[in-house]
Amino acid sequence: MEDGEFAGVAAEGSHAEAMEAQDLGNEETEFAVAQDGDGGAAWEAHLFEDFAGGGNGLSEDGVFVGDVFGDGQEVFRGKSQVGGKSAGVAHDAEDGAAGAMAAEMALAPRALAAGEIDFADDAAALHFADKFVAGDAGKAVVAAEEFEVRIADAGEADADAHVALAGTRQRGFDYLDNTVFEPDSLHRFYNEESSMRSYLACFEATCGAEYPVTEVIYNCPRCGGLLEVRYSEIPSEPWTLKQVWRERRMSNHPLDQSGVWRYREMFPFLEDDRHVMTLREGNTPLLDGCLASSYAGVDRIRFKHQGFNPTGSFKDNGMTAGASQAVRLGMKRVACVSTGNTSASMAAYAAMAGLDPIILIPNGNIAFGKLGQALDYGARTLQVEANFDQILALVRVLAEKLGIYLLNSVNPFRIEGQKSIVIEMMDQLDWEVPDWIVVPGGNLGNISAFGKGVQEMHRLGLITKLPRFAVIQAAGASPFYEFMKAPHAGGFVPNTHPETLATAIKIGDPVSWPKAWQTVGTEGVVESVTEAEIADAKAVIGRCGIGCEPASAATLAGIKKLRAAGKLKADEIIVAVLTGNVLKDPDYIYRYHTNQLQDPHGEPIRGGYANPPVVVPNDVDAIAKLLEA
Ligand code: F0G
Question: What's the pTM value of the predicted model, to 2 decimals?
């Protein structure tokens, strides 16, 4: 085996040999296991964490010391000398912990090379190839399909399980060439051949500082303002874009099948589409809700139902973008605070990407359906004794301290993905702009994304007018509503004790309020609705055969209220965005329909549309009589 050679490592069983084969000696590639990307001691520390014990360990400068692994140690030393500039997988064929370590490393999101290690006497074969991706600094050394790691004697059952799970995680990098019905040249990122530049910019007009799109920041380092992703140009004609987006609906290419990435020209911040993590999100329908329209006193409401997303909420539209950026940046861990939907979504995308998801949730304030999803997707889940706003402050510090990538909506890449909701909406409306887009407001990321999306579509000439926005908040958690009643008086005042059964919007200090303010502007409105109004509206949406989770129903309650106040006309074109799936909060549904629902102060909510289940005897006649009554 020659130094630097990679594919087809022989199964001699000598781990030293195998590891030598992995040492590419290629100064241009980088084995980026560490979070800080500095190479050297940092990655070494991570690399060897599972080797600690048995006399093995790291010296102060991160060099492996110890002798248990014999020849392997030499290889390690070699690696430490090149300090993160070599690629490959260190692995010990005779130690169980090594298996675990290899798996750990295989999950590193920006290892830059792939090859084959084939250990003799293997008990299990695991494929890690798809964990290795080409990154900024180097090229993939060996095609992923050729990469196979076999674990010999994986040791303890725990290590076994860890390896097995890790080995079965997927990444979606190899699908690009698998598409049969793919309209030529449609699937690529437009900026691949152009000089298009994407960058982060401070949202505050008085600052306007710019930063590279690869910087891991969530607020402007200069002034603390919100950040947004900007592009120097979208190099295409509106008509061409519309045509391309339509044609992509016939494509079997994963990027085209995604209702987010189909519109990728509108958020071309990735340079390499192999970083895209997609669960085929988006593609959510526009549904007519006749009963809901008459309930609200308007001619027609169309519901853009984001609950049809893979994890059941609009968060998937943003999370695919945020998770892809995490992969592009080479992050290893991602985190968020969540009332449910964000955590489920982040956990799913992180799992798919081979990133470690860490979610923090307000203890006792998360719907079980969502918690269940997060656990199932393998998220490390921490229930914190604090509310959403407090935990957001906490997780931001934690992310900074530990180098974890934050995926709450303050992350500007989430906002880029969520723009696709309004883009897809316009596409589905054949680019006829609705008079109103109605959306529930919590942390105000979604409305901010919608605002950016429609502004950009308008600037490009994709739409010829701007819709008006109505943001609906729950009365007990409505700081934005209060602020918008008198925007300039005294600045934004957070609600320190937000209360609502619609847990998704139980937020008192929404981070994106400046963007939301700009979006709503003078033409839009912000309304607040009571718990009972939300509950009844939710039941009506259910009766349409559509269904949604409580926060989403604030839209219909808001439309009814705005209509009654004459702020919205009966014949206007209205699209309400249902943000989450009906299955999010079955407990709420059951209580409503059995008249057991109580508001946050313990006051009963009498469901105007209650539909309680009836207990019947096992008796045909009795049941028939009941049904015919
Ligand atoms: N609707 C649903 C179903 C949500 O899950 C959320 C937010 C919102 C509306 C509010 O959207 O924050 O963009 O104004 N849920 C977050 C979560 C807080 O953790 O899942 P926003």
Answer: 0.75
